[in-house]
Amino acid sequence: MKQPIPLHKGHVPFARFLMALVAGIAVSYVYVPNRSLYLIVCGVLISSVITFASLILLTRLRRQRYYGAMGFLVFAALFATGAVLTWQTHPEIDQQHFSHGRYRALIGSIADEPVVRSGYIRFPLEISQAYGADTLTDVRGKLMLTVTMHDSLSQSFNYGDELVIPATYDDVPPPYNPSEMDYQRYLANKNCWHRAYLSSNEVQRIGTGKGSWLMAYALMLRRQLVGKFEQYLLDKDALSVASTLILGYRADLSDELLQAFSNTGTIHVLSVSGMHVVIVFWMFSRLLGWMNHGRKLRVGKFTILVTAVWSYAALTGFSPSVLRAATMITFVIAASTFSQQNRIYNSISASAFFLLLYNPKFIVDIGFQLSYLAVLGIVFLMPIWKAAFQTDYRLIKPISDYVGMSVSAQTSAGPLAAYYFHQFPLYFLLANLFIVLPASGIMYIGFILLILPSGIVASVAGEILERLILIVKSGLHYIEQLPGATIRGICLTGWDCLLIYMCLFAGAMAAVNRSKQWFYAAFMFVCMLVVFSFIANFQKLNRHEAIIFNVRQKLSIGLMDGGEAWVYSDLGSLDDRTMRYAVLPELEAYTSADKIHFVPSDSSYRSDRIYIKDQILQFGNLRLMVYDGEKTYGGKFETDILLIRNNPSISLTELVKNIRCKQLVVDGSNYSSTINRLLSEAKIAAIPIYVLKDNFAYRYRITD
Predict the structure, then answer these.
(1) What is the rounded distance in angstroms from the CA atom of residue 300 to the CA atom of residue 291?
(2) Are the C-beta atoms of residues 82 and 25 closer than 8 Å to each other?
């Protein structure tokens, strides 16, 4: 078997530029930004550019001995550019950031489409000015604003609205529980380091239309198109799928529907990406097929196609995956129009290069990473699939090609998806084969419905679209319920993920080149992965730990032993939103969902390893007591950990006369005054104390 796509470094110049830029961005994430380091990197960038320009002027590119030095300067400049672009918006670097001053009020405009939820609305606010003691100052920065909506008469907010708010904001806190989503890092990657919670009567709108006119028009048009779907699609799930799949509007997707797509490996269908952009390109390309003759007509077709693709990208909100697809298709259209050879790896590298120049923080966006991995997998592995499964049957070939495309995309993106989401859809191939034609049909019928004027024909199209979506929904729910449909509790480290990709690459190269060296390398990576997995599983089975999670005013205690986990909580059930966000990620990383047991805090429980009664937990040789002052205890009682909740009035001095403890834990249900009192009393009594409020979860390793 020959190598599927000849690859030579000279054919992919943008790959080398991309590596230099990515290296600079990566370094900027490793080091905490400070002003001195930023100025040094800026100096490297400026000196590299000046030296490069001087060499061009002096040599006029005629002296080859300087080519190596000039190449080094280009890479140094790109490296420094990556770091500078990533750091420049950080409050430590940006001296005009609003967080550097004390202000009474802030003025800013809504920077993205607001997300509406029951009882509140949330959106990023781009701050432009601030009121000081008696002056108005130009500032910069972004904060995430959550506005509580008291009733239906509360004012609405739209992209581009200019607002005045009181300057009462906080730093975005770090995660307070193990394996919890790092919301602080998530917002920082959107150049947002602060947040504010206000009521609607504290927010005053003073203007409109302050954002990008193109984005404002695209969002307004999308709202109108969603309104047309609402007119013809009566089923709520059908409406949400059509709005999401065609227009990228995800506000009304239910958790159940999202879970069905996620568990079957078809969530990419709901994320407007390459498939959707290709369909738009294909439709317009077919309509404009008559313009293939003559250079002027081809240039006109190029202009219309590029405009259509980027207009659709704007309509769907310019997500990273859409930007990737639109950029790549633009390169392909340009190469075809101007009779240039299109080298696919160079096009992929170029699209990533320009997108990262536009926003270097795309590099940590999960959608961006998965999108490029899927494309690279398809480009690299599909020729191998076609060579291994050759067929000349016209009916079988499209099925074989789609199966190969799904397997290639899942092979390349699956490990990273499992690393992020800790699950893998076992029936992804069946689900993708089932959904490919209906999804395309939904796209085409949806576009037709949006174009049609109101009337009987539009009603028929709406009914067909709704029924097709409900068929897809029923099919995915059926696949989701099949035995072993989803492998959950996958806990991969970064090294595990890297080893899997190295193994896959070495295996593919061994198959392509029939090389023993690559085969031995793949075997070595597999052995390393097996060893690491064995060590991780051994550590899990020997893990005996209790965790008091930080769930604000609520209670959640996790107990882990022998591959099983228990949750003692007042949150209601394992399906509670806070439970899924703060508690379950750590427990599901330890064991499978069917081995996690829920114990309500007002109940008793007994097993061979745990005994719970009257808010006292006996877990092996650990005794933990939850005390809220509602019960009195006669006689002496000893416990390892005493968790104090809900502001008991009794002093710690009086409490320890009856209840002796080795460790005192105070959670977020207590007032600050109560916490300060307990801190003082614990210091006097020489009792170790741990405060959960605004702090990380308390972990206790149990020794046999």
Answers:
(1) 8
(2) yes
| Tokens matching residue 455 | 């009337």
Calculate mean pLDDT across residues 566-589: 91
What is the spatial distance between Cα 273 and Cα 277, in angstroms, rounded to a whole number?
6
318 Rama class: left (phi>0) / alpha (psi -120 to 50) / beta = left
3-state secondary structure 391-449: CCCCCHHHHHHHHHHHHHHHHHHHHHHHHHHCEEECCHHHHHHHHHHHHHHHHHHHHHH
DSSP 100: G
Helix (H) / strand (E) containing 187:
helix 183-188
Q: Work out the average pLDDT over 107-118.
A: 88
Quick one: which of 700, 685, 551 has its CA closest to 640?
700
User: DSSP assignment of 597-628, as one string?
Assistant: EEEETTS-EE-SSEEEETTEEEETTEEEEEE-
In the chain, DSSP finds a helix count (H) and a strand count (E) of: 22, 23
Stated pTM of the model: 0.84
- Ranges of each domain in the chain: 9-87, 98-211, 214-264+427-490, 494-535, 545-701
**What is the structure's pLDDT at 9?**
46
Domain 545-701 belongs to what architecture? 4-Layer Sandwich (3.60)
Query: At which residue do the structure tokens 């890092």 appear?
Result: 185
In single-letter form, the type of residue at position 57 comes to L
User: What pLDDT is stored for residue 704 in this prediction?
Assistant: 64
Placement of tokens 């109108």 in the chain: 224
- CATH topology (fold) of 98-211: OB fold (Dihydrolipoamide Acetyltransferase, E2P) (2.40.50)
Average pLDDT over residues 545-556: 94
Token look-up 């990380």 returns 696
